[in-house]
Specification:
Elements lengths: L1 H5 L1 E2 L33 E6 L3 H5 L9 H9 L11 E7 L5 H17 L3 E6 L5 H12 L4 E6 L16 H7 L8 E6 L6 H10 L2 E4 H6 L5 H12 L6 E7 L21 H13 L3 E7 L10 H16 L2
Parallel strand pairs: 2-3, 2-4, 4-9, 5-6, 5-8, 6-7, 8-9
Antiparallel strand pairs: 1-3
Helix pairs in contact: 3-11, 4-5, 5-6, 10-11
């Protein structure tokens, strides 16, 4: 525990909202950041306040402010139906380069997973999927985890340096993520390069577009069936990782994003997919990225992610 505490900075205590009403407790009064409570925690919250990967990808910066804005909204919520013990370890110490930050981030995630805990990661840019996925592979083995990217983009860009558009190409090419265990979910075809799409198809990656999600009665039905087939072929359950890029949600429901679009998941569909992630017994890491408070309206996007965190925690299998 001491090692990962040295790799993180503490969250501002002012973010832990207190109503001081015994009849109306809030999460800010319940969630601990005291090192002595780490050992007994079931779920750990970790922020990564950087958007260098977004800048490198020529996106609009601002996601570095997201972890604290999300915390601000999350800690105002009540503990209704929450039975798991939560611990906020703070934020990843940001390095001189994105690569250094990723190495630190990966070390923290590996330790939390090795300690048998689930992890909620708050970005920051979507490039954090690389250290999160690498940690999954190094702890459990590439053949023992599923990666689900819920995003309007494919994030398998070829680039001279890693950025918010490259994480899954890195994971695939470096052998940390097996194509048959990778899911591209809610991507929008008008945002998808046909060359990158063909690359994923030829590798055998599972692909579920926004249109396919919308064609089913419930937005998680197609994903449920695909993952069920993977579990059938395994002697033991696979560990799962869900990366939720807020760009997947339409801008009317999530205006504060790095790459907004008028089309996308509705807020309710987004929450349904988060609840599905919680329903899988072996979901180890859930990640929220690309929230951009600079462009948010009345904290609507940060609030949506805060509610998504609540739904995940209160529905964990």
């Amino acid at each position: 525990m001491s090692d990962i505490y040295q790799l993180t900075s503490r969250a501002n205590p002012d973010l832990f909202f207190r109503r001081n009403d015994p009849n109306d407790p809030r999460l800010g009064e319940i969630v601990s950041s005291d090192p002595e409570d780490y050992a007994s925690a079931d779920i750990v919250i970790l922020g990564c306040p950087q958007d260098e990967g977004v800048r490198r990808n020529n996106g609009r910066v601002g996601a570095a402010e997201a972890p604290n804005k999300i915390r601000e909204q999350f800690y105002k919520l009540t503990p209704f139906n929450i039975k798991k013990k939560l611990f906020d370890i703070g934020d990843v110490l940001i390095g001189a380069t994105l690569e250094e930050t990723h190495d630190v981030h990966c070390s923290i995630v590996k330790q939390v997973l090795a300690d048998g805990k689930r992890l909620i990661v708050l970005g920051g840019g979507n490039d954090i999927s690389y250290p999160d996925g690498r940690a999954m592979a190094e702890v459990f083995g590439p053949e023992k985890w599923l990666g689900i990217n819920v995003d309007s983009h494919l994030d398998v860009r070829i680039a001279d340096e890693r950025n918010s558009g490259t994480p899954y190409r890195q994971l695939l090419e470096e052998g940390y993520l097996l194509p048959k265990y990778f899911y591209e979910v809610a991507y929008q075809t008008h945002f998808a390069s046909p060359i990158y799409y063909k690359h994923l198809r030829d590798l055998g990656v599972n692909r579920i577009s926004l249109e396919i999600l919308r064609s089913r009665e419930q937005p998680d039905m197609e994903l449920k069936e695909n993952i069920r087939q993977q579990f059938i072929g395994q002697s033991s359950s696979l560990n799962t990782f869900f990366g939720f890029d807020i760009d997947a949600v339409r801008s009317s429901d999530a205006p504060g994003s790095s790459a907004p679009s008028p089309l996308g998941l509705r807020a309710g569909e987004f929450i349904t997919l988060v609840k599905y992630a919680a329903s899988l017994a072996n979901t180890k890491v859930i990640e929220f990225s690309e929230v951009n408070p600079k462009y948010d309206i009345d904290n609507a996007t940060a609030r949506l992610v805060g509610i998504a965190m609540h739904r995940f925690i209160s529905h964990v299998a």
